[in-house]
Amino acid sequence: MLDLVPIIAGVIAAAILAGIMAGLLGVGGGIVLVPVLFWILTFIQFPAELSMHMAVATSLATIIFTSISSARAHHKRGAVDVDLMKRWGPGLMIGALAGGLGARFIDPAGLKILFGSIAILVAINMSTPKTLVIADQLPKSRAANGAMSLVIGLISALMGIGGGTLSVPTLSAFSFEIRRAVGTASAFGILIALPAMAGFIISGWGLPDRPPLSLGYVSLPAALLILPFTVGFAPLGAKLAHSLDGIWIKRAFAVFLAITAVRMLMAAFS
To answer: Which residues cross the membrane (predicted)?
Structure first.
């Protein structure tokens, strides 16, 4: 029992940080939860072929509710672009479902490489004073918007993250106002996490060596431990997003993300 105390404490601490980051940056919390869950599963010598998939799927299960909490807080402040949600929604959901269903056929090392590589790019983007600007508005083409949202949904599902990690930098590159990008991205998390989680449940159904009370790759006990803290702290992050200059918070998070990404890549190639 005593051995479980530091594990539970670590998960709770990660959940609190994930909730704050979900509201503050619109990232859904998975960018924090996936590596923490993965390292905990590795520490307790959980089967290596399941660890990354379980971490990703369990993270997605919590993002559904964290994103609802965060999106509601941003919507009250008028920072959710409903028109963009309608435009990007189908692509996000189709891409996320494809990612969840296809995850079973991806080697765990492949997921680690994907997570680590994207996380390093996100960390670099977060640490720069001025983000890349491609154009002064989003493309008007339905096909271009569909392609962008499909790719964001697919990669987000495979990484176990909400839409903000990829969509906020993308929207910022098209001159989308940052608070509106964060608020809308928090709502994207719902559209991504629901179909992605369904895909991970289906693709992991019936596999051996999963822990008790698992639905496919989703660990229900872990999700239930995380949820109160991510949901509870997401509104605090949203409040901070509308009251603070988040540049130093973003840079500190970028350092954490870069360290995590490097360790994930080292684990993939070890």
So the answer is: 6-38, 50-68, 88-106, 113-135, 147-169, 181-202, 214-236, 248-269
